[in-house]
Design brief:
The protein is about 30% helix and about 20% strand. The protein has about 400 residues and is α/β, with parallel strands linked by helices. It has helices spanning about 45-60, 70-75, 80-95, 105-110, 110-120, 160-175, 220-230, 295-300, 315-325, 345-355, 360-370, and strands spanning about 10-15, 65-70, 145-150, 150-155, 185-190, 200, 205-210, 235-240, 255, 260-265, 275-280, 285-290, 305-310, 330-335, 335-340, 355-360, 380-385, 400-405.
Length: about 400
Amino acid sequence: MKINVSSEIGHLNGVIVHTPGHEVSLVNPELKDELLFDDIIFEEDAREEHLDMLDLFKAAMPKDGQVIEIVDLFKDSIQNEEARAFFIEQLIREFPEENLSVIEKQLHKLDAQQLLEFSTQGVLPGGSKFSLLPSPNLLFTRDLAAVVDDTILISRAATKTRLRESLMMETLVEFNPLFDSVRDSAIRISGNQSIEGGDVLVESKDLVLIGMSERTSFTGLMKAADGLLNHGVKTVLAVDIPKQRSSMHLDTIFTFASNSECIAFPPAIMEQQDNVVALQKVNGAIQAESRSSLQSALNEFSANTYDFIKCGGKDRTNQFREQWTDGANVFALAPGVIVGYERNTNTFNTLVDHGYSYMNQFEFIEEFGEKGLDLNQDNKIAVSFQGHELCRGRGGARCMTMPISREEI
């Protein structure tokens, strides 16, 4: 598979996901806030919803498209003793408060499945009293990295809660053959810097958006921007967004739907002024110029002209309610073919008003599962899928996906 993502909307060919495992059942109400969850999730229903979502993806992808489970990649990678040593060394270094050096020899003796379970569930075999908190946010693979054109930006989590996931991703890029083509050009964030993939949106190989959120620091943003601009991106739009739980990443309030349309949460995007800075390389140095709005900046620096569709529609209450349940967090399977949670009915009605056909996940699979997706760009489709348990984790379709291969448009 050729690793390349040169837009948010190119026909999906390869994506990394994680279907919820036992780690989500280890989140209890006393720990949920520390683990960045607003509610507890019923594992069995969440798994079923997630697997149904993946069936929807497969119906839209080419016959040779791949949906890849991240834990399978990790288990495969740590069969390699050098990869295992690398991961364990990073764990010990990044979590000094856990005193992991005490069990270092035991970690090296674990088989791949046991080391995976320690990484995701925080437990050791044999009833050991030594444990870590679980990693239930692995469900949101989007945040671990972002493929931009033919390179990869490796995220570094803002919180200790998600840092183990970042180390897993770093191990994959360093040692898994899937990433051979991007390993040497990978952009790495280190130290106290932070950036998460939910804040990185690829408009084209020339234009990338990065949100400065509660999860992406200014220094992380600038390090990422410098790496991208050195790799051939012409402009990075830094978008300052509210530093709050409801808008933890840029993609929770803004996503691309087609080559001329985006879904936006009006209060945090359409009603903001002077919150965008255009970053470009001039004579080897980054030059920064402010812009009045995201829409005007997008239309200036891209080859397209964008219309912003309101998450939740015109009603203010509906906008806030549906942004809370990821109405703006849609995921494009192809240009103009997008998926989102069924419960965001006002967002879907607004999309219909903008010329989209509406289908639920089962109708879509029945229509395209055998014959394949019609890539006629005039055929815009908004597809809903059920996620009553998944949405409790506060992440939608885009949050739960890390595209690594899309067809160029």
